[in-house]
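Just wondering, does anyone understand what follows?

——
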Amino acid sequence: MREPADARARATELVDMIRPYLSTDGETEIHDLGCGTGSMARWLAAQLAGPQRWVLYDRDAELLGLVAASSPDEASDGAPVTVETRRRDITRLDPRELAGASLITASALLDMMTAEELRRLVATWARVGCPVLITLTVTGRVDLSPADPSDQCVANAFNAHQRRATGAGRRLGPDAVGAALDEFTRLGLDVVVRPSPWRLGPQQSELAAEWFTGWLAAACEQRPDLSAVAPLYARRRLAEGAAGRLSVTVHHQDLLARPR
């Protein structure tokens, strides 16, 4: 459901910046980490010319099965696109597995990582020596129109949930882009960050309702006291959405790291 919104949100300016690094007389090899159902490959393969070989990684075998059923097969100029899937824990990849990559990509990934996982992954990426394009990392900012007195309280609780502690450590959540920027810069890469907001209006009311329901549930999980006001707040907001009166902007950032 979110794939069209993701496609509209991603910063295409960064795609233009990676073109000089890609092959012009042979096959371009792209490794996509935490691929999910393969939406990043479907979006980007169609914007790049020439033969492409995509290697998609995820630790969920069911998602990898969906990739195989709906993988891209053609570049922007009609050149062939081939896809290989690998079941892996991407936080523990060996740089040798990424050898030969012209580009590494990921989407909606960094905010779910801990600081240690991010440091380890950025170090791996830096050793490969190719550009890294990471899209749709949440920033913690959400704008709903018309405004409601409960919006900010729920947003704060959701952001705290994003930063919650797990068995592997505390997740970065909205701090992820800043942490990645620091790590890439420390290792000598040039980094460009651009906004990539979801803009959900009346035409995306179904997705907005799904997003809102998950957003509120996570906030209530973080702060159980919100459960006292959540039902009325949810009915009010979902009714506005169903009537076409609610607009939502969920702010993300895209990041491109390039060897200097």
Notes: The longest strand covers residues 132-145. The chain has a mean pLDDT of 95. Residues 205-222 form the longest helix (18 residues).
